[in-house]
Design brief:
single chain, 193 residues, mainly alpha, elongated
Length: 193
């Protein structure tokens, strides 16, 4: 329950889907409510931190050149250094924590989930209006496929994180290639004997 009373459901679909295919509706609803709170929280906090530190970075970047113009502040190197360090710190924190990428990922995830839910809902409504004798089993199959795609969508944040992490073997290979390239350049720059 929210501050202002009962919270609106995470995703709403046609009442016919909820009435006729209750079990399928419950499965999808359970899946979405389990993951929605975490994704919503992380999207909001990533967006807030990204905007906050981005605003600090932009404001201080505008102020820094102005500090060099005025005689009173030109000699105060501690002030210039502090502003420069604050800009660097803000940029570093944004990049280290990946707030922009996180915010973007969760927003894109939300759109993809809405699209998948709409497709699932339309498929079940199509089954509702069809005269197929095995509508329940077809509804279950449609829901199974949709839940699988929803898990893939919800898993995108983990895939993004794991894609950015380099295992030690890859780092060692990169260092060895760098050394090999350096040695090759050194050998090419030496005069022939």
């Amino acid at each position: 329950m929210g501050i202002f009373g009962e919270r609106e459901p995470v995703y709403i679909w046609h009442q016919t889907v909820s009435d006729e295919f209750k079990e399928c509706s419950d499965v999808v609803h359970r899946l979405l409510t389990t993951h929605y709170g975490r994704s919503h929280f992380l999207a909001r906090t990533s967006g807030i931190w990204f905007r906050l530190f981005g605003t600090v970075e932009v404001c201080l970047s505008v102020v820094l050149p102005l500090l060099f113009i005025y005689q009173e502040t030109q000699t105060k190197t501690w002030l210039l250094a502090t502003v420069s360090v604050a800009i660097s710190l803000s940029t570093s924190l944004k990049l280290f924590w990946g707030w922009h990428e996180g915010w973007w990922t969760y927003r894109a995830q939300k759109v993809a989930i809405r699209r998948e839910i709409s497709e699932w809902e339309l498929s079940l409504l199509d089954l509702h209006f069809s005269a197929a004798p095995d509508r329940e089993s077809k509804a279950l199959e449609v829901t199974r496929e949709s839940v699988s795609r929803l898990f893939d969508i919800l898993n995108t944040e983990h895939e993004e994180l794991l894609r950015q992490i380099n295992p030690p073997e890859r780092v060692i290979d990169a260092v060895n290639q760098s050394r090999q390239a350096r040695d090759t350049r050194s050998a090419l720059q030496q005069p022939p004997v």
